[in-house]
Amino acid sequence: MEPEIAPHPASTEVVDFADWASNATSVLDISLATSFNPDFTYPIFGDHETIFGYKDLSIKLQYTSGSLVPYLKVDYSSKYNGSYPIDNITKVLNEHLPKMYLTNQDSFIDSVKTDHVQFKPIGEKIHEYTREVKHGNEYFEIYKSSFSSQKFREYHARMKIFVLLFIEGGSYIEDDDEKWEIFTIFKREGSHESTSYHFVGYILPPYKKQGHGSELYRLLYQLFKSRKDVSEITVEDPSEEFADMRDKNDIRYMLEHGGFKGLKAPVSKETLSTLQQEYKLTDRQLHRCIEIYLLSNVDKLNEQDYKTYRLQVKHRLYTFNYDVLQGLEEEERKEKLHETYLNLEDEYHRILELI
Questions:
Q1: CA of 149: how far to CAs of 60, 120, 126, 153, 318, in Å?
Q2: Active site located where (predicted)?
């Protein structure tokens, strides 16, 4: 059960609180040529995602689409003047925006024009690809950068806020650690001297559901898989959406490279070890990929084959959840394990539909 989110402190102190409260996610409008709302604002405005003290509040955070020079404009029809202090929007955002951001619209328009002509992505271009759209093709490039570049550190200070606004549970990384490798997607328009670039980055809303995440994931997976200093490729606390994309691409990669050839339940420890060394997936992720593949091929009408598959999956689930299951009575343990298996099988069927 998820913990209950505490309301804004002013909600218990101000009688007409609702008249002066705004949902931060709804009133914050972000623009990089195209406007959109953030997915999350709790890292900035608190778990309640509420801003108190204004009527008809509008927060516009606009960026030049390449160099990400920000322009902030806060509008409202009236401000609360009671005894309870209102939220200082500018002060809160100052903690997440670069020191030099614009508040003059004319200056921002000039920056947009300059950006279109002069901006070029920072770092090393390592990949480019094309997407077919109704009016032709769109072109994208992926760049690798690090904090050893002062210029990129300054750029990162402008782009990092998107981590909080669009990646659930996301947090900032330290820009004084030069071991970080940052990979960023840009859309390329025009050609030769008239080329312009637009930040796609962490796959912002205008570019979602277009295959950019899979393109970036496949590239990074192959890069790290080929490196001798990498023994395992892991993802820290992935969201459900990311986990789906990861499952889909890992399974496709293993299929294309013969990773599942000849596999049938039960899969031996020796085979699992060999596959782990070859594909450098975590133990849990390798098991998921194999189990999803085996499920796609098992004949459920063949009682023995289906039972063998179920036992393999249940054995892993039992091992993974050993501490929890050991605290239950035998019958309850069996029921819980079977319930967990059925939920997992439903999840696997959902993944197979994506593939």
A1: 30, 15, 17, 6, 48
A2: 236 (proton donor/acceptor)
